[in-house]
Write a structure and sequence with these properties.
It is built from 16 helices and no strands. The chain is mostly helical. It has a domain of about 230 residues: MetI-like fold (Orthogonal Bundle). The chain is globular and about 90 Å long.
Length: about 350
Protein backbone atom coordinates (compact mmCIF):
# COMPACT_ATOMS: atom_id res chain seq x y z
CA UNK A 1 0.00 0.00 0.00
CA UNK A 2 2.94 2.34 0.67
CA UNK A 3 4.02 2.07 -2.96
CA UNK A 4 0.46 2.77 -4.11
CA UNK A 5 0.18 5.88 -1.91
CA UNK A 6 3.56 7.16 -3.13
CA UNK A 7 2.51 6.58 -6.74
CA UNK A 8 -0.78 8.43 -6.23
CA UNK A 9 0.98 11.38 -4.58
CA UNK A 10 3.41 11.60 -7.51
CA UNK A 11 0.47 11.54 -9.93
CA UNK A 12 -1.08 14.47 -8.06
CA UNK A 13 1.75 16.76 -9.12
CA UNK A 14 1.11 16.71 -12.92
CA UNK A 15 -2.64 16.91 -12.27
CA UNK A 16 -2.20 19.97 -10.08
CA UNK A 17 0.24 21.49 -12.56
CA UNK A 18 -2.21 20.98 -15.44
CA UNK A 19 -5.07 22.61 -13.54
CA UNK A 20 -2.96 25.65 -12.72
CA UNK A 21 -1.63 25.95 -16.29
CA UNK A 22 -5.09 25.86 -17.86
CA UNK A 23 -6.51 28.35 -15.37
CA UNK A 24 -3.57 30.72 -15.74
CA UNK A 25 -3.87 30.66 -19.55
CA UNK A 26 -7.61 31.38 -19.37
CA UNK A 27 -7.08 34.34 -17.05
CA UNK A 28 -4.61 35.89 -19.52
CA UNK A 29 -7.27 36.11 -22.26
CA UNK A 30 -10.23 37.25 -20.14
CA UNK A 31 -10.94 40.95 -20.82
CA UNK A 32 -11.35 43.49 -18.04
CA UNK A 33 -8.38 42.53 -15.88
CA UNK A 34 -7.37 44.30 -12.66
CA UNK A 35 -5.37 46.97 -14.52
CA UNK A 36 -8.37 47.83 -16.72
CA UNK A 37 -10.65 47.88 -13.69
CA UNK A 38 -8.28 50.17 -11.81
CA UNK A 39 -8.18 52.55 -14.78
CA UNK A 40 -11.97 52.48 -15.05
CA UNK A 41 -12.27 53.34 -11.35
CA UNK A 42 -9.79 56.18 -11.79
CA UNK A 43 -11.89 57.64 -14.62
CA UNK A 44 -15.06 57.80 -12.52
CA UNK A 45 -16.35 61.13 -11.33
CA UNK A 46 -16.38 62.36 -7.70
CA UNK A 47 -19.93 61.10 -7.20
CA UNK A 48 -19.07 57.62 -8.39
CA UNK A 49 -20.66 58.05 -11.82
CA UNK A 50 -18.75 57.20 -14.96
CA UNK A 51 -17.28 60.24 -16.65
CA UNK A 52 -18.11 58.75 -20.02
CA UNK A 53 -18.32 55.51 -21.89
CA UNK A 54 -15.41 53.24 -21.03
CA UNK A 55 -12.68 53.55 -23.65
CA UNK A 56 -9.86 51.49 -22.15
CA UNK A 57 -6.82 53.56 -21.17
CA UNK A 58 -7.73 56.58 -23.30
CA UNK A 59 -6.88 59.83 -21.53
CA UNK A 60 -4.74 58.14 -18.84
CA UNK A 61 -1.07 58.99 -18.48
CA UNK A 62 1.02 56.10 -19.94
CA UNK A 63 3.45 56.39 -17.01
CA UNK A 64 0.55 55.91 -14.63
CA UNK A 65 -0.51 52.78 -16.54
CA UNK A 66 3.01 51.39 -16.28
CA UNK A 67 2.99 52.07 -12.53
CA UNK A 68 -0.31 50.21 -12.18
CA UNK A 69 1.04 47.25 -14.15
CA UNK A 70 4.13 47.15 -11.94
CA UNK A 71 1.90 47.30 -8.85
CA UNK A 72 0.04 44.17 -9.93
CA UNK A 73 3.11 42.46 -11.41
CA UNK A 74 1.87 42.69 -15.00
CA UNK A 75 5.08 44.42 -16.11
CA UNK A 76 6.70 40.97 -16.35
CA UNK A 77 6.12 38.35 -19.09
CA UNK A 78 3.34 35.82 -18.41
CA UNK A 79 5.76 32.88 -18.25
CA UNK A 80 7.88 34.60 -15.62
CA UNK A 81 4.77 35.42 -13.57
CA UNK A 82 3.59 31.81 -13.81
CA UNK A 83 6.85 30.32 -12.54
CA UNK A 84 6.93 32.88 -9.74
CA UNK A 85 3.41 31.86 -8.77
CA UNK A 86 4.39 28.17 -8.76
CA UNK A 87 7.32 28.95 -6.48
CA UNK A 88 5.01 30.72 -4.06
CA UNK A 89 2.47 27.89 -4.13
CA UNK A 90 5.24 25.35 -3.44
CA UNK A 91 5.88 27.27 -0.20
CA UNK A 92 2.10 27.41 0.41
CA UNK A 93 2.19 31.16 -0.10
CA UNK A 94 -1.04 31.96 -1.96
CA UNK A 95 -0.23 35.62 -2.49
CA UNK A 96 -2.16 38.77 -1.66
CA UNK A 97 -5.50 39.98 -2.95
CA UNK A 98 -5.38 42.87 -5.44
CA UNK A 99 -8.46 44.62 -4.09
CA UNK A 100 -8.93 43.53 -0.46
CA UNK A 101 -5.34 44.15 0.69
CA UNK A 102 -5.24 40.84 2.55
CA UNK A 103 -3.38 37.57 2.16
CA UNK A 104 -5.37 34.87 0.37
CA UNK A 105 -4.81 32.51 3.32
CA UNK A 106 -6.31 35.11 5.64
CA UNK A 107 -9.35 35.50 3.38
CA UNK A 108 -9.85 31.73 3.26
CA UNK A 109 -9.65 31.46 7.06
CA UNK A 110 -12.14 34.31 7.44
CA UNK A 111 -14.68 32.76 5.05
CA UNK A 112 -14.16 29.11 6.01
CA UNK A 113 -16.41 29.07 9.15
CA UNK A 114 -19.50 29.91 7.06
CA UNK A 115 -18.80 27.17 4.51
CA UNK A 116 -17.95 24.69 7.28
CA UNK A 117 -21.25 25.47 9.03
CA UNK A 118 -23.27 24.87 5.87
CA UNK A 119 -21.23 21.80 4.91
CA UNK A 120 -21.32 20.05 8.28
CA UNK A 121 -25.07 20.45 8.73
CA UNK A 122 -25.77 19.44 5.14
CA UNK A 123 -23.55 16.36 5.34
CA UNK A 124 -24.73 15.01 8.68
CA UNK A 125 -28.43 15.67 8.16
CA UNK A 126 -28.30 14.15 4.67
CA UNK A 127 -26.63 10.94 5.80
CA UNK A 128 -28.53 10.59 9.08
CA UNK A 129 -31.81 10.72 7.17
CA UNK A 130 -30.91 9.20 3.80
CA UNK A 131 -29.13 6.02 4.99
CA UNK A 132 -31.92 4.80 7.35
CA UNK A 133 -34.49 5.79 4.73
CA UNK A 134 -32.62 3.79 2.07
CA UNK A 135 -32.49 0.74 4.35
CA UNK A 136 -36.23 1.02 5.06
CA UNK A 137 -36.96 1.30 1.34
CA UNK A 138 -34.87 -1.80 0.58
CA UNK A 139 -36.63 -3.85 3.25
CA UNK A 140 -40.03 -2.67 1.98
CA UNK A 141 -39.13 -2.70 -1.73
CA UNK A 142 -42.21 -2.52 -3.95
CA UNK A 143 -44.53 -1.40 -1.16
CA UNK A 144 -46.58 1.81 -0.99
CA UNK A 145 -44.00 3.25 1.43
CA UNK A 146 -41.26 2.64 -1.15
CA UNK A 147 -43.28 4.29 -3.92
CA UNK A 148 -44.27 7.38 -1.88
CA UNK A 149 -40.77 7.99 -0.49
CA UNK A 150 -39.19 7.53 -3.92
CA UNK A 151 -41.56 10.10 -5.37
CA UNK A 152 -40.82 12.51 -2.51
CA UNK A 153 -37.01 12.31 -2.76
CA UNK A 154 -37.06 12.60 -6.55
CA UNK A 155 -39.27 15.70 -6.37
CA UNK A 156 -36.85 17.20 -3.85
CA UNK A 157 -33.94 16.31 -6.13
CA UNK A 158 -35.64 17.91 -9.14
CA UNK A 159 -36.13 21.26 -7.39
CA UNK A 160 -32.91 23.34 -7.58
CA UNK A 161 -31.61 24.45 -4.20
CA UNK A 162 -31.63 28.09 -5.27
CA UNK A 163 -35.30 27.95 -6.29
CA UNK A 164 -36.22 26.21 -3.03
CA UNK A 165 -34.21 28.83 -1.12
CA UNK A 166 -36.14 31.66 -2.79
CA UNK A 167 -39.44 29.95 -1.90
CA UNK A 168 -38.35 29.47 1.71
CA UNK A 169 -37.26 33.10 1.96
CA UNK A 170 -40.50 34.43 0.51
CA UNK A 171 -42.78 32.22 2.61
CA UNK A 172 -41.00 31.77 5.95
CA UNK A 173 -38.76 34.84 5.89
CA UNK A 174 -40.97 37.40 4.17
CA UNK A 175 -44.65 36.58 4.62
CA UNK A 176 -44.62 34.64 7.90
CA UNK A 177 -41.41 36.26 9.22
CA UNK A 178 -40.48 33.15 11.17
CA UNK A 179 -36.83 33.17 10.12
CA UNK A 180 -34.26 35.92 9.37
CA UNK A 181 -33.61 36.89 5.77
CA UNK A 182 -29.81 37.11 5.87
CA UNK A 183 -26.65 36.46 7.83
CA UNK A 184 -25.35 33.57 9.93
CA UNK A 185 -26.00 35.24 13.30
CA UNK A 186 -27.71 38.37 14.60
CA UNK A 187 -25.89 41.69 14.92
CA UNK A 188 -26.00 41.49 18.74
CA UNK A 189 -24.73 37.90 18.84
CA UNK A 190 -21.65 38.83 20.92
CA UNK A 191 -23.90 40.24 23.63
CA UNK A 192 -26.00 37.08 23.99
CA UNK A 193 -25.45 34.25 26.45
CA UNK A 194 -24.24 30.87 25.20
CA UNK A 195 -27.68 29.30 25.16
CA UNK A 196 -29.14 32.24 23.28
CA UNK A 197 -26.20 32.18 20.86
CA UNK A 198 -26.87 28.55 19.93
CA UNK A 199 -30.57 29.24 19.41
CA UNK A 200 -29.80 32.34 17.34
CA UNK A 201 -27.30 30.42 15.18
CA UNK A 202 -29.73 27.55 14.55
CA UNK A 203 -32.47 30.08 13.79
CA UNK A 204 -30.34 31.68 11.07
CA UNK A 205 -28.98 28.44 9.59
CA UNK A 206 -32.33 26.65 9.31
CA UNK A 207 -33.45 27.97 5.90
CA UNK A 208 -30.12 27.75 4.00
CA UNK A 209 -29.42 24.23 5.30
CA UNK A 210 -32.94 23.11 4.35
CA UNK A 211 -32.43 24.46 0.84
CA UNK A 212 -29.12 22.58 0.49
CA UNK A 213 -30.16 19.32 2.16
CA UNK A 214 -33.30 18.38 0.23
CA UNK A 215 -31.51 18.07 -3.08
CA UNK A 216 -28.83 15.75 -1.65
CA UNK A 217 -31.25 13.18 -0.22
CA UNK A 218 -32.07 11.40 -3.46
CA UNK A 219 -28.60 10.15 -4.49
CA UNK A 220 -27.63 8.79 -1.06
CA UNK A 221 -31.07 7.28 -0.43
CA UNK A 222 -31.28 5.45 -3.75
CA UNK A 223 -27.63 4.33 -3.51
CA UNK A 224 -28.31 2.84 -0.07
CA UNK A 225 -31.48 1.13 -1.25
CA UNK A 226 -29.86 -0.41 -4.33
CA UNK A 227 -26.80 -1.56 -2.35
CA UNK A 228 -29.00 -3.32 0.22
CA UNK A 229 -31.21 -4.88 -2.44
CA UNK A 230 -28.16 -6.29 -4.20
CA UNK A 231 -26.86 -7.84 -0.98
CA UNK A 232 -30.26 -9.19 0.08
CA UNK A 233 -30.42 -11.35 -3.06
CA UNK A 234 -27.02 -12.99 -2.52
CA UNK A 235 -26.46 -16.60 -1.47
CA UNK A 236 -24.96 -15.91 1.97
CA UNK A 237 -28.19 -14.17 3.01
CA UNK A 238 -30.25 -17.23 2.04
CA UNK A 239 -27.80 -19.41 3.97
CA UNK A 240 -28.09 -17.23 7.09
CA UNK A 241 -31.86 -17.37 6.91
CA UNK A 242 -31.78 -21.15 6.43
CA UNK A 243 -29.77 -21.47 9.64
CA UNK A 244 -32.68 -19.91 11.51
CA UNK A 245 -31.24 -16.47 12.16
CA UNK A 246 -33.75 -13.70 12.75
CA UNK A 247 -34.41 -11.22 9.97
CA UNK A 248 -33.11 -8.42 12.15
CA UNK A 249 -29.82 -10.25 12.79
CA UNK A 250 -29.42 -11.09 9.11
CA UNK A 251 -30.01 -7.47 8.14
CA UNK A 252 -27.75 -5.70 10.63
CA UNK A 253 -24.99 -8.30 11.14
CA UNK A 254 -24.57 -9.78 7.66
CA UNK A 255 -26.06 -7.42 5.07
CA UNK A 256 -25.32 -4.06 6.67
CA UNK A 257 -21.52 -4.19 6.52
CA UNK A 258 -21.31 -5.34 2.90
CA UNK A 259 -24.01 -2.96 1.69
CA UNK A 260 -22.34 0.06 3.26
CA UNK A 261 -19.09 -0.38 1.30
CA UNK A 262 -20.02 2.01 -1.57
CA UNK A 263 -21.52 4.47 0.94
CA UNK A 264 -18.66 4.51 3.47
CA UNK A 265 -16.03 4.85 0.76
CA UNK A 266 -17.86 7.96 -0.47
CA UNK A 267 -17.83 9.58 2.97
CA UNK A 268 -14.56 11.55 2.59
CA UNK A 269 -15.50 13.04 -0.79
CA UNK A 270 -19.03 13.86 0.37
CA UNK A 271 -17.76 15.32 3.64
CA UNK A 272 -15.20 17.63 2.04
CA UNK A 273 -17.36 18.36 -0.98
CA UNK A 274 -20.14 19.63 1.26
CA UNK A 275 -17.86 22.50 2.32
CA UNK A 276 -16.79 23.71 -1.09
CA UNK A 277 -19.47 22.79 -3.62
CA UNK A 278 -23.05 23.75 -4.17
CA UNK A 279 -23.09 26.62 -1.68
CA UNK A 280 -22.39 29.59 -4.00
CA UNK A 281 -26.02 30.36 -4.84
CA UNK A 282 -27.19 29.64 -1.30
CA UNK A 283 -24.51 31.91 0.18
CA UNK A 284 -25.46 34.67 -2.26
CA UNK A 285 -29.19 34.28 -1.64
CA UNK A 286 -28.94 34.31 2.16
CA UNK A 287 -26.07 36.87 2.27
CA UNK A 288 -23.65 34.39 3.85
CA UNK A 289 -20.05 35.49 3.41
CA UNK A 290 -18.39 32.12 2.71
CA UNK A 291 -15.87 30.57 0.33
CA UNK A 292 -18.39 30.21 -2.48
CA UNK A 293 -19.17 33.92 -2.46
CA UNK A 294 -15.46 34.76 -2.16
CA UNK A 295 -14.61 32.68 -5.25
CA UNK A 296 -17.45 34.18 -7.26
CA UNK A 297 -16.56 37.79 -6.38
CA UNK A 298 -12.87 37.21 -7.11
CA UNK A 299 -13.73 35.92 -10.60
CA UNK A 300 -16.02 38.89 -11.27
CA UNK A 301 -13.43 41.41 -10.07
CA UNK A 302 -10.55 39.57 -11.79
CA UNK A 303 -8.76 39.23 -8.45
CA UNK A 304 -6.30 36.71 -9.88
CA UNK A 305 -4.35 35.89 -6.67
CA UNK A 306 -7.60 34.92 -4.96
CA UNK A 307 -8.80 32.97 -8.02
CA UNK A 308 -5.56 31.01 -8.38
CA UNK A 309 -4.99 30.64 -4.63
CA UNK A 310 -8.44 29.27 -3.84
CA UNK A 311 -8.29 27.00 -6.90
CA UNK A 312 -4.92 25.63 -5.72
CA UNK A 313 -6.35 25.10 -2.24
CA UNK A 314 -9.52 23.38 -3.49
CA UNK A 315 -7.59 21.18 -5.96
CA UNK A 316 -5.18 19.98 -3.28
CA UNK A 317 -8.08 19.10 -1.00
CA UNK A 318 -9.91 17.34 -3.83
CA UNK A 319 -6.90 15.21 -4.80
CA UNK A 320 -6.16 14.27 -1.19
CA UNK A 321 -9.81 13.41 -0.59
CA UNK A 322 -9.88 11.17 -3.66
CA UNK A 323 -6.87 9.27 -2.33
CA UNK A 324 -8.48 8.85 1.10
CA UNK A 325 -11.68 7.60 -0.57
CA UNK A 326 -9.73 4.92 -2.45
CA UNK A 327 -7.91 3.87 0.72
CA UNK A 328 -11.26 3.48 2.45
CA UNK A 329 -12.00 0.54 0.15
CA UNK A 330 -9.18 -1.45 1.81
CA UNK A 331 -10.31 -0.39 5.26
CA UNK A 332 -13.92 -1.44 4.64
CA UNK A 333 -13.22 -4.50 2.46
CA UNK A 334 -9.84 -6.23 3.07
CA UNK A 335 -10.37 -8.26 -0.12
CA UNK A 336 -9.48 -5.19 -2.20
CA UNK A 337 -5.83 -5.15 -3.26
CA UNK A 338 -4.19 -2.17 -4.98
CA UNK A 339 -1.55 -4.28 -6.69
Amino acid sequence: MTAYIAKRILLMLPTLFGVLVLTFIVTQFVPGGPVEQYIAEARRGPGGGDVGAYRGSQGVDPKKIEQIKALYGFDKPPLERFWKMLGQFARFDLGKSFFQNKDVWQLIKEKLPVSVSLGLWTFFISYLVAVPLGVAKAVRAGSRFDFVTTLAVLVGYAIPGFVLGVALLVIFGGQLQWFPLRGLVSSNWDELRWGSRIVDYLWHIALPVTAMVLGSFAVTTMLTKNAFLEEIRKQYVLTARAKGLSERRVLWKHIFRNALIPIVTGFPAAFIGAFFTGSLLIETLFSLDGLGLLSYESVIRRDYPVVMGTLYFFTLIGLATKLVSDLCYVWVDPRVKFD
